[in-house]
Design goal:
Elements (H helix, E strand, L loop, with lengths): L10 E5 L3 H12 L3 E6 L8 H7 L3 E4 L11 E6 L8 H9 L2 E3 L1 H8 L4 E5 L4 H14 L4 E5 L5 H7 L5 E5 L2 H5 L8 E4 L7 H4 L2 H9 L10 E5 L3 H7 L5 E6 L7 E5 L12 E5 L5 E6 L8 H17 L3 H10 L8 E6 L2 E5 L6 H8 L6 E5 L12 H7 E6 L4 H10 L5 E3 L6 H15 L5 E4 L12 H13 L2
Parallel strand pairs: 1-2, 1-4, 2-3, 4-5, 6-8, 6-9, 7-8, 9-10, 10-11, 11-12, 16-20, 17-18, 17-20, 18-19
Antiparallel strand pairs: 12-13, 13-14, 15-16
Helix pairs in contact: 4-6, 5-11, 5-12, 11-12, 16-17
Length: 472
């Protein structure tokens, strides 16, 4: 696409009235474009429509009219979650009209250097951690994107001395053309979102677009332990900084194992080895403010980005120790009768749930299930066998997950009838899990599935879980 200022008196169609769609619509309207915003939801479900129409922006709700996209349209900006097979997007492709996401638009107007963070798991934690490190170092971060504020809105406020720290999904990245972050980070790649992407090749290619336009002076932060990340690293033009929880690196951020002579064989340390060879200690793994091997990985990635952006290692270490996690990601809710309750609603795929289960040493009563994307959930079997003593399954995948639990040898497997409304079903699940838990156990909501079969978002699912726990 061109700079938004070049669309004066040209027609721009915005698909989706969510937070990002509203921000983009206002931006193009102020730039003098002729803007039409479309959302297939009924008008009563589009409270933003009145505000946009008051500005003189045309809003069409309730359907995707055939006349919406035509040869006179110069650009289509779509909500990332809208699939590419919907009629207006396909029509744009047939007419040769460019289709982008908000990330592409924001890139053209953002004065600040962008730090873009993506991956199948760990994005929100790593993005938040990176922002806190830069804030502690006085580097004026603005955290936005798939977390918090719309990127376009935040970019309008950014100045050259800010750092825009952006969580990015594969959906957002797939719709970019020129986007090039100063620092890009790919945390990991697991099989997920195939209902949207169709194939793993398309999913990986969408993630790789984070690095496609970077230059030699930019930085690509990649996970040396992940095969897809290693393959992508071979093709990027930017300077590559690696992180690893498994290997000593010639340079980069990694976990240094204890010396053979050490009395504490479990003690491990996060370190940075610079390109000249010296190793700089950062923090002991046991000192991290949030538990779990996956959070060691997230800590290394955040450290790599913050250090590259200019944060000193001692500041990074302080934040690593003090950070206590983000809402809905391994979030402690309460303890009741010796049982601890944790909200991990953001675990929307099996790999995330496995990593969360592995974060605990206690026995777990698990609440899981949600949107059915076609997985058989057999990836959960080893973790179920090792550590999960009972399960409550709900959502579209409840029977699939219950089947895996029974294959794991669990005798206490409950399913919740989701014909009830979401709040009632989740309250019942919490009550069932609490009844099966004993003092010393963990009751864990870690669904391994997206929320959209029953809930509007993983955030709402997590909030309902916490409410149900507090009402026990």
């Amino acid at each position: 696409m061109e700079h938004p200022s070049n669309y004066r008196d040209r027609q721009v169609v915005i698909l989706g009235l969510a937070r990002s769609g509203v921000a983009v619509a206002k931006l193009f309207h102020e730039a003098g474009a002729i803007v039409t915003v479309n959302d297939k939801k009924e008008r009563s479900l589009c409270p933003e429509a009145d505000e946009l129409e008051a500005l003189g922006i045309s809003v069409v709700c309730g359907s995707h009219p055939a006349s919406l996209v035509h040869s006179g349209v110069a650009l289509v900006v779509k909500n990332p979650g809208i699939p590419y097979h919907v009629e207006p997007v396909e029509r744009a492709g047939q007419l040769g009209i460019e289709v982008v996401t908000e990330v592409e638009v924001a890139y053209f107007i953002c004065k600040a250097p962008i730090i873009g963070i993506t991956g199948s798991n760990g994005k929100t934690t790593t993005t938040t951690w990176t922002g806190l490190m830069l804030e502690a170092a006085g580097l004026k971060p603005i955290v936005a994107g798939n977390i918090g504020r719309a990127l376009t809105e935040a970019s309008l406020e950014a100045e050259a001395d800010n750092h825009m720290v952006v969580e990015l999904s594969s959906f957002q990245l797939k719709g970019t053309r020129e986007f090039a972050p100063r620092i890009g980070c790919l945390l990991n790649v697991y099989e997920t979102h195939l209902d949207y992407h169709g194939t793993m090749n398309d999913y990986v290619a969408s993630k790789a677009k984070l690095f496609a336009n970077q230059r030699e002076e930019d930085t690509a932060v990649l996970n040396a332990d992940d095969p897809a990340c290693r393959q992508i690293a071979e093709g990027v033009r930017a300077r590559v900084v690696l992180f690893s929880t498994r290997s000593k690196l010639q340079s980069g951020f990694y976990v240094e194992p204890p010396l053979a002579s050490s009395p504490d064989k479990e003690k491990r340390r996060l370190v940075f080895r610079d390109e000249q060879g010296p190793v700089h200690p950062i923090v002991e793994a046991s000192e991290l403010g949030i538990p779990g091997s996956h959070n060691i990985e997230n800590a290394l990635a955040a450290s790599a980005m913050a250090y590259t952006a200019g944060a000193p290692l001692h500041v990074i270490a302080k934040v690593l120790k003090e950070f206590r996690g983000v809402e809905h990601r391994l979030e402690f809710v309460r303890e009741r009768d010796g049982v601890q309750f944790y909200n991990d609603s953001k675990a929307t795929n099996p790999t995330a749930t496995v990593k969360t289960i592995e974060s605990f040493k206690q026995d777990i009563v698990l609440i899981a299930g949600g949107l059915d994307r076609g997985s058989d959930y057999m990836e959960l079997l080893p973790a179920f066998q090792r550590q999960v003593k009972a399960i409550v399954a709900l959502g579209e995948t409840r029977e699939k997950i219950a089947r895996v639990a029974k294959l794991a040898g669990m005798s206490r497997v409950k399913t919740v009838d989701t014909a009830n409304n979401a709040q009632v079903a989740l309250t019942e699940a919490v009550q069932e899990a609490s009844a099966m838990a004993e003092a010393g156990d963990i009751v864990l909501l870690s669904p391994a599935c997206a929320s959209w079969d029953m809930f509007p978002s993983y955030e709402e699912r997590g909030r309902m879980f916490k409410e149900s726990v507090h009402n026990l």
